[in-house]
Amino acid sequence: MMNNPIRDNAPATGALPGRRPRQERSRQRVENILAIALQLMVEHGAEALAMREIARRAEVQISSIYQYFPSKSAIIRELAQRDLARVRQLLHDAVDTLLAGPRTPPIVTAVDQLVDAYFAHYRDQPEALAVWAGAQSDPSLRELDQDDTRSTAEFLVAPLLRLLGRPAWDGVHALSLLVSEVTGAAARLALSLESPLREQLIAQHKAMLVAALESHKARVKAS
Q1: Is-cis flag, bond preceding 126, omega within 30?
Q2: Over its length of 223 residues, how does the chain's per-residue pLDDT go in tens digits?
């Protein structure tokens, strides 16, 4: 599945690699550029994204785009960072809801709800899926996914300890990294498939996670 999880999913315009938009008019121009780029990615894929076409649709000079985004990769990076912030917020909210009560839910319930929430974000939003695919296709952006995996793993440590009934455990970080990485990989694969194979793959992924977590929990009880 990106540094400490962000709970504020406001647009991260402060992270723009080019000139920062300081006036409302400039901010609106940047948002328009990003919206058009996103639509083009949905329509044609990230590989076909062209700065000239963005400028044409935005009805601005191409130099106006380069003021804020020095390359196509910079646009995709900004869109990817925004989407990853939304996913982090989604996971925070899902975990907060799941663990809100005094009783720890069964592992199977936790896996069902968290995997479904993560998968649904990309399944139901073509914009999010287009951005994800674009970031994956650009070698210079792949570290975003690696950073996200590490960040998600850090966030999942505390929920996993609660689900496993452990106050602490040296191996929880490795387990958390594995859960984060394989869930992202399973979602990518599932989204490339048609039904019913897509749903079968997600069900198998959930079953493997449940089996692994239940095995760890059983070892705690036995020790």
Answers
A1: no
A2: 433 333 333 333 344 555 555 678 889 999 999 999 999 999 999 999 999 999 999 999 999 999 999 999 999 999 999 999 999 999 999 999 999 999 999 999 999 999 999 999 999 999 999 999 999 888 888 889 899 999 999 999 999 999 999 999 999 999 999 999 999 999 999 999 999 999 999 999 999 999 999 999 998 777 7
d(CA 174, CA 170): 8
């962000």: which residue's tokens? Answer: 6
Q: Between the CA of residue 42 and those of 1, 193, 217, what are the distances in Å?
A: 21, 18, 42
Alpha carbon distance 145, 149 (integer Å): 6
7 inside domain: no
- Does an H or E element contain 79, and which? helix 72-98
Amino acid at 2: M
Q: Residue 12 burial by CB count (10 A; 0-12/13-18/19+): exposed, middle or buried?
A: middle
User: How many folded domains does the chain comprise?
Assistant: 1
Does 6 fall in a domain?
A: no
First CA to last CA distance, the chain = 32
Q: What CATH number has the domain bearing residue 71?
A: 1.10.357.10
Nearest to 128 by CA among 160, 96, 80, 174: 80
Distance between CA 17 and CA 66 in Å, rounded? 10
Rounded to two decimals, the pTM is: 0.84
